[in-house]
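pinging the channel bc i need a second pair of eyes. not urgent but kinda urgent?? the chain im working w is below, pasted from the shared doc
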Amino acid sequence: MIYYVSCKTGDEGNGTKETPFRTISQAAEIAAPGDTILVGPGMYREAVDPKNGGSDEEHRIIYRAEKKGTAVISGAEPVKNWEQYHEEVWVCHIENSLFGSSNPYTTYVQGDWYLAPDPVHTGEVYLNGKSMYESKTLEGVLVPKVYKASWDPEFTVYKWYTEQKDGNTAIYANFHGKNPNEENVEINVRRSCFYPSKEGIGYITLSGFTIKQAATQWAPPTAYQEGMIGPHWSKGWIIEDCEVSDSKCSGISLGKYLQPDNNNKWSTKFLKDGTQTERDAICQAQTEGWMKEKIGSHIIRRCNIHDCGQTGIVGHLGGVFSVIEDNHIHHINNKQDLEGAEIGGIKMHAAIDVIYRRNHIHHCTRGMWLDWQAQGTRVTQNFFHDNTPPEGTQINGGLCLGEDIFVEVSHGPTLIDNNIMLSACAGRLSTQGLAFVHNLIAGSFTFVDNGTDNRGKRFSTPRYTPYHMPHRTEIAGFMTILHGDARFLNNIFVQQEVRSDLRQYAETSGMGDLHMYHFTCGTKPYDGFPTPEQYFSQFTAESSMDGNCTDIYYDHLPVYTGGNVYFNGAQPCNSEKAAQIDTEHTIRMELIEKNGGYTLETNLFQYLKNSGSSLISTEDLGMAFEPEEKFESPDGSSIVFDTDYFGDMRNADPICGPFAKCSTEIAL
């Protein structure tokens, strides 16, 4: 059955092509497995709550825009009743009945791991599609000041303030000479745009929509993780060819369902540490149906995701076994009015058997953050750049510094191959069970051997995190992070000049340049880690019975290296043998943006020699130590790294890095 929707029709439509429904929600009330909802061009200001899902992969419910990008689902409403308050500042008064049960202008962003010092509401004010900056006082609107932590400081003087007045919501805004009644001014009204209120509404396809402007709440892993779009704890969604933007917090959520007894428990009851409440949440989910047969296996592909406050894509537990590919994710958390430990272009916990493939991620506070249980996770053929604050930006804390990939307190296997990583900080690696294979890396690795405890002053506070049965959600055990168990094979490391403001931040933050913020490109931060031969030779029948040898079970795990090439002063770790270190030539790399794309101009391949290595496969990488799982495909099959960043075939004696062929200009 095909149902038709057009916002240009009347209210009497019955869903036929001749008399379509006026709203998507009308179709969502009656759609059944196998049905398609075809949505015509126009603006749909509604929160679609699908009543039913598909029954299986072959019998989905498909919501499709007739023409890509022309059907717009918005969580905002226009405002045209502005009155001039004082010079460039205007005021409007909005009846609270407009907001229903949740008023974004009385609801503050809050939750576990939310760390912003100034309170902000889930509401926003948009001037011609661009979100303005909230002030905590009316004076801040009348006399606005530049907010130097923003990645767009010039626009930060466009301020707004809200208060409750005579049972209405009053909003004051400084439009700097523009008449808001003549411009497109909108405000957040709805909490979501396309999100089922019930769990288990699976096998839905959402295709070709523009979806924007919702008053979403902070989405930590220990809370009900809402997004502007999301499957809400179900299986088999496809979100494709959509433009997703301007969610207050998260654009797309593949996240956790509501656990009423453990919802932001740390920041509301205060008694258990956040790490413990997260362990509780995982174990509770295990007993309440978190399994491969019921949850996850979603696809997000070919979406343009941008200008969201917290994350482009967020998830905990609910995103397992998913594929996230060919997306353009950019300008996330650039306003810097939200701050905390759950921010990134992609921020996912428990990315079990999740594949991140061919995504372009840039101008985000951090590109991708894989936190806890990145097991069977593969990050391949992605393009990362400019995921650190612009030069001169005020950095408010270590979590605002940013990097291309942050992998945290996971046991692996986490496979990172054939990627281009050009930000100043390439990876924050507070973890183990890694494999970096055939990447081009122009930034440093930070937080190696750090960041895995809860910073206790009097007691040891390690974070014990779970690992799972291979390719399943069932928990196999818990263990703290020993660090190491990392493989670096056939990568190209190119040291770039480190900005003085980044060095200054590291030195003045109390963390130190060579402690947590290590700005030397290469495997140098792994100095002192044992080789496999050194590590495994300790374990004998005699040592296992010797009570004085207990420490060997808690020492650093080994680091495996081979076939890496180092340029411009990039450095290998002191245990790396046969590293190719070029001290003669200066490598130039310039990223040029033109005609809507990027080109990498470089002389790298003039000086790149054959590494002398053969093709690498799953068998060469061994097993991640703790889960005893190979670096393999989700179906358990072996991976041979015989294709490059573009999908081109490599020779039997491949060159290092992500490209099988050499060129001075590489269109990315």
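so Residues 274-287 form the longest helix (14 residues). and The radius of gyration is 25 Å. — does that match what u expected or am i reading it wrong
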